[in-house]
Amino acid sequence: MNESRYGNRDERNHYRPFKRVDYPPLFVWPLQPIKGLRWIFSIPGYFFPWNMIYVLTGISAWYLLSPPLENFSKITLENISLLFMRNSSFVAIYFGAFHVRLYIQKKQGTAFKFNPNWPNIKSKKFMLGNQNLDNIIWTFGSGVVIWTLLEVGILWLAANNILNVISPTDRPYYFIFMILTVHLWRDIHFYLIHRFIHCGPLYRHAHYIHHKNNNPGPWSGLAMHPTEHIFYFSCVFFYLIFPFHPAFAVVTLVHAGLSPAPGHAGFERMILKNADFDIDAHAHYLHHKHFECNYADGILPLDRWFGTFHDGSLEAQEKMKKRLKEQAVRK
User: Fold this and answer.
1) Which domain holds residue 146?
2) Which of 86, 95, 223, 267 makes the best surface tag, with the fewest CB within 10 Å?
């Protein structure tokens, strides 16, 4: 597949897509209702492919791969272990699929790879000197552990009637609405906590772990300090203030746990046989590359509203430099 159809390489051989980072037509001005509705149900669009993968995985996780809610009335090692193994399996399969194809088998070489270099295998800033091993240790040793503990905790609240648990058959429209809008609520939450952990003390204490990956790969997605994992997975607390169903929490945590894989893949597009498709990694790659831009997940135009948007163009790069200089002067 000829990447020159979609982008070019700069003087450092870094890939730069022609396509600019932008927002869905549903959330831009002037409003485009027809295009917005078409985007919701198109491929790619709001539901397909990514959100539907996470929703179906989360629904299956609750209804097919979890103990009954009443089993969580007491916090037991058995329940924690079951959910940890389930969540670990999801991560191993999903993150591993991107890693094996793109970084072990190298099925497409460096075609569409933003940074032409491969992950470090001899670097003092990573545990054991290896970027991928470092990321995998943080992912399972902290990320999946905290994901699981928060899940068990919120299910304990529901099982002990501390939360108002609804029945999907009694409130089907509410149930479907909450499940299908997970990405919107997560986008708002992620932007807020992401800006927060970029503050000096929190960045030096925790977020710097994630930003060691200036050339990210799939396993970089959940490579975070435990403090950051607590902030990151705290998106599940959103459901403490609304009528609750366990599927809301499980789907939200699955979404948070799995969605970083394609976003950190390090490639703009994946090639499967004779077809290729955009994996929506460009916006967040720019964040890892430039640090002070694109804090949100890319559905709602939060970065545009708050002046931290970078669309990948040279004009956006100059605008970001000007903004940072003005901030430095004000300090």
Assistant:
1) 3-330
2) 86
